[in-house]
Amino acid sequence: MPRSQAAAIAILSFWIGLNLFVWFAATRTFSTVARILKSPDPRFRKIVEQLGAEPTREVLRYSASEINRRYFRAYGWTEILLGVILLALLWRQTPRDTVAVAMVAGMLALVAALTLVVTPWMTSLGRTLDFAPRTPAPPQMRRFWMLHGAFTSLDAVKLLAGIALLIRWIVAGW
Question: What is the value of pTM for the model shown?
Fold first, then answer.
């Protein structure tokens, strides 16, 4: 197997792994807040008693939100970099795998839309909701969840395209 093919497989595999890691990490932040509040360390419990349960929950959820925002910003720019490198690598190969080039270009287009449009919208809207009362739900919450759903759906399409391409390369003995 030529080095360029091995490099393409390694880059795509890393990209897929990064995608799965970020999904795992982002979903753990809020469940970690719930777990910490459910059975806190005795030292932490003393702090919570001083601050109060609800303000502590808000501070921890805000922290989780900011961590996720940082993850997704870094994740998006890293994906753009990986996509550009992979696309350039595939473009230079002879003979050119036009299916792979088209798939990676499509993945890169999705990443660009998510990183440059959807993530900033979600970040901006999310910050307006961080300390908003949840009962009743603020009107912006519906739009936030629509953006979140769009992000998750498009990110899943990109992930499945990457997995399909990787399987295609493995099955083809590329």
Answer: 0.88
